[in-house]
């Protein structure tokens, strides 16, 4: 696919609200790779395709605001999980679709947004499939999903996977581009990212 001449009718959300426990307690979105924070790589990618780039974070807001003015904490209690971060994006959205990525997948390209948006259908949630597994934090949600997310959170649900598994979904095939979803969980994985991808 080629880059669209205009931005897609969606906003992009970067999830950067975790504690980074497997990364030594570091804020993963601000860990540096190739001279930029991990979240900046996602922001640069989303800025090419999405109307707005939103960032959900629970610390270091000033640093994230250098990437986009649309920065906010969880509205459901700090560190309540990625689904709370997704729900917190609703007041900041300008479009009817929200494209999501965690902050720790810096190999994403604009192809992610283009393919996800082109494959959308009705009000179904779309989720990326890498050929082996569903990528639960790489999904495209219609705005109509937020009422259901609220009910799930109010029932003490927190798991994105369990919530998505309870909803009608469609898979968007990325089996030819699984490397885009390589995610960084530890400092060692970050240090070896280039070599692990054969770069």
UniProtKB/TrEMBL annotation:
Catalysed conversion reaction: Mo-molybdopterin + GTP + H(+) = Mo-molybdopterin guanine dinucleotide + diphosphate
CDD domains to which the protein is assigned, alphabetical: MobA
Q: Name one GO cellular component term.
A: cytoplasm
| Residues that, per the record, bind GTP | 15-17, 28, 74, 104
* Places the protein is found: Cytoplasm
Q: What keyword terms does UniProt attach to this protein?
A: Cytoplasm, GTP-binding, Magnesium, Metal-binding, Molybdenum cofactor biosynthesis, Nucleotide-binding, Transferase
Sites binding Mg(2+) sit at 104
As cofactor, the record names: Mg(2+)
**A biological-process GO annotation:** bis(molybdopterin guanine dinucleotide)molybdenum biosynthetic process
EC number(s) given by UniProt: 2.7.7.77
Question: What sequence ranges are listed for the domain MobA-like NTP transferase?
Answer: 12-165
| One GO molecular-function entry | metal ion binding
Pfam families, per database record: NTP_transf_3
> Keyword Cell wall biogenesis/degradation on this protein?
no
| Keyword Ligase included in the entry's annotation | no
Query: Which family would the database say this protein is a member of?
Result: Belongs to the MobA family.
Q: Which PANTHER family match?
A: MOLYBDENUM COFACTOR GUANYLYLTRANSFERASE
Q: What is known of its domains?
A: The N-terminal domain determines nucleotide recognition and specific binding, while the C-terminal domain determines the specific binding to the target protein.
Q: What does this protein do?
A: Transfers a GMP moiety from GTP to Mo-molybdopterin (Mo-MPT) cofactor (Moco or molybdenum cofactor) to form Mo-molybdopterin guanine dinucleotide (Mo-MGD) cofactor.
Q: Subunit info?
A: Monomer.
What's the protein here called? Molybdenum cofactor guanylyltransferase
Q: Which organism is it from?
A: Hahella chejuensis (strain KCTC 2396)
